[in-house]
């Protein structure tokens, strides 16, 4: 091969050796010279800077030309002209320049220049006439126009150039990024591919029945042909409904992780936008992306943010377009596209009926709060990476945490671990778990001390709750009594149900009413005064009485009728202000019944406390000494 050919090949060669590892091996990287960016291309920003520099230099030269010499007052220039002590005069706009030829002793000729700046709007010739100086007597009188560029013109020109450069850069970036600057209509869903969710059914505990119900979705995504051959249609949408923290999002990720399919994770609030129509556009974009990577799962968390009932105060007109687009897209899913929509909500009762019909979200899976067995399984999962003392019994902790969700249990163990690490200890003790139990439920223990009167008031108040609960049939057993301040409470009485509740009974709810108002009753009986500390107890007792009367039909006067819709009933956790569905007369009867139930419970609590006055005094004395009594210590004092 000739040398000329070698040079030609090397000129067109696109290979460049690069040492890329510690072994000294060379990796060949191919570079397409034809696609490399041109190095000699001048950017618009460079052009703009050059223009700005030229204008700045021109402005400086203009200043030097117009103001060359010593600056003097206008009066001195006028006086010099009147005395004819100059050789040349030049008028440049508002600058008057006088020149005087001077000859030094050695014959050197110099030119002395002075100038003044006339005030804005001043007529120089009129000024001379006012001083009785004849214009015709001026030596070499002539006018030289200065550059017609003012400082304001330069600033305007700079902003114009800068604006043009910014617009050019903006459009160039839009082309390079595929129009991402104007992507308000693009879906914000996060895409996780297959196993990258990191969650499988092994990491989801406490909801075994729910897992069995959704396993067929995993099987369909893995083996769709098996169902299609039999003419079976898998649900297009599955709604996961349950209390906060029960594991709905975790379950959705586990379904994607088990099936190994792409997982689009978004929320109802991400569809909302200040711009009208942006939500519907994002829905279209989300389903378009999902069809490209099918089979896959779309998960919409908190779907009630955009799918509330239409035509009511629950739904705004701005969100109705988004809901309509979701309905249209779900109707447009073909059986062979294998796109399954999962959604989660805490309020299935507020959803629009159109979204729950067959062909859309045609299956509603209720994710319940875990029972004792489920709580134990959840604690086992979250306890794997934590160190405990040998005497720790998670079974007992699972029984005491009635009403705790999976998220609450994880938070409980985490708070205990944080407390141990802060004290530089190595293992979590039972006391750490109980402290975390109260911290999660009521708040952090306050370090501020109370005076003797506050401690005494708190002791009688909490003892009243505990004693009435102990001697009232249907009450839950007392687990702990404390006069230590936590959160918003001055003290606390903890109850732990003996077994899981599947339903509520009137006897049990009446017992709740009596023990709930017993703290206020104890203050009245033993302190002969009442405080504002019972405000939360009064609110809770009122809510229980309202539920008995309006929801559960436990009033003899009103009978087996449910009064009020849930959107109106703020005492049940809803505050949407819906119209009530009963008359003013019925409202008066409801008020009378609620007041009667709470009043009767208060009188019963006072009778119970008077009947066990000696026990109340013993418990108060122990509380003032120890500050905290366990359930066993309390029951020993009640014998």
Q: What percentage of amino acids are in beta strands?
A: 5-15%
Question: Which CATH-level-2 architecture of the largest domain?
Answer: Up-down Bundle
Major sheet characteristics: 6 strands, mixed
Q: Major sheet: order of its strands? A: 7-9-10-11-8-12
Quaternary: single chain
How far apart the termini lie comes to 111 Å
Based on secondary structure, the structural category is alpha/beta
Question: What is the third-level CATH name, the topology of the largest domain?
Answer: Methane Monooxygenase Hydroxylase, Chain G, domain 1
Number of domains: 4
CATH class of the largest domain: Mainly Alpha
Could you name the CATH homologous superfamily of the largest domain? Peptidase M41
Q: Which spans of ≥5 residues are poorly predicted at pLDDT below 50? A: 1-41, 177-182, 567-578
Strand tally is 15
Radius of gyration: 42 Å
Helix content: 40-55%
**Count of helices?**
20
Shape: elongated
Overall pLDDT: 76
Explain this structure to me?
The protein has 639 residues and is of the alpha/beta class. 46% of the residues lie in helices and 12% in strands. It has helices at residues 3-12, 44-66, 74-82, 124-130, 151-176, 208-222, 224-229, 248-259, 278-292, 317-331, 372-382, 394-400, 406-422, 430-442, 452-470, 506-527, 535-551, 584-611, 613-626, 631-637, and strands spanning 15-19, 26-30, 70-71, 88-92, 95-103, 109-117, 190-192, 237-242, 263-267, 296-301, 339-345, 363-367, 478-482, 492-495, 628-630. The chain has a six-stranded mixed beta sheet with strand order 7-9-10-11-8-12, sandwiched between helices. The longest helix is centred in the C-terminal third of the chain and has 28 residues, at 584-611.
């Amino acid at each position: 091969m000739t040398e000329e050919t070698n040079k030609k090949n090397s000129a067109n060669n696109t290979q460049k050796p690069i040492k890329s590892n510690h072994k000294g091996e060379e990796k060949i990287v191919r570079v397409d010279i034809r696609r490399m960016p041109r190095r000699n291309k001048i950017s618009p920003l460079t052009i703009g800077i050059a223009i700005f520099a030229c204008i700045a230099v021109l402005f400086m030269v203009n200043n030097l030309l117009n103001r060359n010499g010593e600056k003097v007052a206008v009066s001195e220039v006028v006086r010099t002209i009147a005395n004819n002590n100059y050789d040349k005069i030049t008028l440049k706009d508002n600058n008057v320049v006088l020149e005087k030829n001077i000859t030094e002793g050695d014959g050197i000729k110099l030119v002395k220049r002075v100038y003044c700046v006339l005030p804005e709007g001043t007529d120089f010739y009129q000024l001379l006439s006012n001083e009785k100086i004849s214009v015709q007597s001026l030596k070499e009188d002539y006018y030289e126009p200065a550059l017609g560029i003012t400082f304001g013109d330069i600033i305007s020109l700079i902003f114009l150039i800068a604006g043009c450069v910014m617009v050019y850069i903006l459009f160039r970036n839009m082309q390079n990024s595929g129009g991402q600057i104007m992507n308000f209509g693009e879906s914000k869903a996060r895409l996780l591919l297959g196993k990258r969710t990191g969650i499988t059914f092994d990491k989801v505990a406490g909801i075994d029945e729910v897992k069995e119900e959704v396993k067929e979705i995993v099987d369909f995504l893995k083996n769709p042909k098996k169902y299609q051959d039999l003419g079976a249609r898998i649900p297009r949408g599955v709604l996961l409904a349950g209390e906060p923290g029960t594991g709905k999002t975790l379950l959705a990720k586990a379904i994607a992780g088990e099936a190994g399919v792409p997982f689009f994770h978004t929320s109802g609030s991400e569809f909302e936008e200040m711009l009208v129509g942006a939500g519907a556009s994002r829905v279209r974009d989300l389903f378009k992306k999902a069809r490209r990577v099918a089979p896959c799962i779309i998960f919409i968390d908190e779907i009630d943010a955009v799918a509330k009932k239409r035509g009511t105060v629950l739904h705004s007109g701005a969100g109705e377009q988004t809901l309509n687009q979701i309905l249209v897209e779900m109707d447009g899913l073909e059986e062979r596209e294998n796109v399954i929509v999962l959604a989660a909500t805490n309020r299935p009762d507020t959803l629009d009926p159109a979204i729950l019909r067959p062909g859309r979200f045609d299956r509603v899976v209720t994710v319940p709060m875990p029972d004792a067995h489920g709580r134990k399984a959840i604690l086992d999962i979250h306890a794997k990476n934590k160190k405990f003392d040998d005497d720790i019994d998670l079974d007992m902790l699972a029984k005491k945490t009635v009403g705790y969700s999976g998220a609450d249990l994880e938070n409980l163990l985490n708070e205990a671990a944080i407390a141990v690490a802060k004290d530089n200890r190595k293992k979590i003790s039972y006391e750490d778990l109980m402290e975390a139990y109260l911290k999660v439920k009521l708040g952090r223990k306050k370090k501020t001390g109370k005076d003797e009167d506050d401690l005494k008031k708190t002791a009688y108040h909490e003892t009243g709750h505990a004693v009435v609960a102990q001697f009232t049939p249907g009450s839950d057993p007392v687990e702990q009594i404390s006069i230590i301040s936590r959160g918003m409470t001055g003290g606390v009485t903890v109850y732990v149900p003996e077994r899981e509740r599947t339903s509520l009974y009137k006897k049990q709810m009446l017992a709740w009413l009596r023990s709930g108002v017993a703290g206020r009753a104890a203050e009245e009986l033993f302190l002969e005064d009442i405080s504002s500390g019972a405000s939360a107890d009064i609110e809770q007792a009122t809510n229980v009485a309202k539920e008995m009367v309006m929801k559960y039909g436990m009033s003899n006067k009103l009978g087996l009728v449910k009064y009020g819709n849930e959107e109106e009933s703020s005492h049940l956790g809803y505050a949407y202000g819906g119209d009530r569905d009963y008359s003013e007369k019925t409202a008066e009867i409801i008020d009378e019944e609620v007041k009667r139930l709470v009043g009767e419970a208060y009188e019963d609590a006072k009778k119970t406390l008077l009947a066990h006055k000696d026990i109340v005094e013993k418990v108060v004395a122990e509380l003032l000494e120890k500050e905290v009594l366990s359930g066993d210590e309390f029951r020993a004092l009640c014998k």
